[in-house]
Amino acid sequence: MRKIRVIKRRIIYQGPVIRLVHEWLKTSQGQPMIRETIQHPGSVVIAPLLDREHLVFVRQYRRAIDREILELPAGTLDVAGESILACARRELEEETGWKASCMRLIARFYAAPGLLSEQMHLFIAEELTPVGAHPQADEEVKPVILSLDEAIVKIQTGLICDAKTIIGVWLTLGKLASSKLHLKH
After folding, report:
1. pLDDT tens for residues 101-153?
2. Which of 13, 98, 104, 127 would suit a FRET pair with 133, their CA atoms being 20 to 30 Å apart?
3. What residues does each domain of the chain span?
4. From CA 74, how far away is CA 44, in angstroms rounded?
5. 43-177 CATH fold
6. How do beta strands 32-39 and 67-71 pair?
7. pTM here?
8. pLDDT confidence of 185, banded at 50, 70, 90?
9. ∠ CA 42-46-51 to the nearest 5 degrees?
10. Distance (Å, rounded) from C-alpha 56 to C-alpha 72?
């Protein structure tokens, strides 16, 4: 494995969630490299299963692409000292209005490691109880219930185009197929 040495680092932007960093680096062979990366505290993604055939999604406006998209509920690890499990529980309730008795971490992944440090933690939420949504003031989210078959069709046709959601749906299907979930038939 190549060792990379940091020669100089400059923070170009520091916001409430992200930091844009410009770095001058050298490879183990002494070759110069310049990289710009976005540093992010990480996030959670939740696959809320109502039963073995239905998931709760959210329809949400995303400014970066200037449109609404259908995605699994998710959120940034932005509360000091909050565990990833507590964050997943909070985001599930805020965005969907459902509370889970059982939350299981099934994967961790990076959506864009060439640019972004954000590690995403995927949970499956089971045994859901409705409690009423209460999104943050700057969020406009609407819960949407879809069957897994409908979700797959929307992925295949491009109507679900969010990477974390595509990963979450496929990994949830895999867990269901291996019957490692507590859901009642």
Report:
1. 999 999 999 989 999 999 999 999 999 999 987 766 777 889 999 999 999 99
2. 104
3. 5-39, 43-177
4. 5
5. Nucleoside Triphosphate Pyrophosphohydrolase (3.90.79)
6. unpaired
7. 0.89
8. very low
9. 170
10. 7
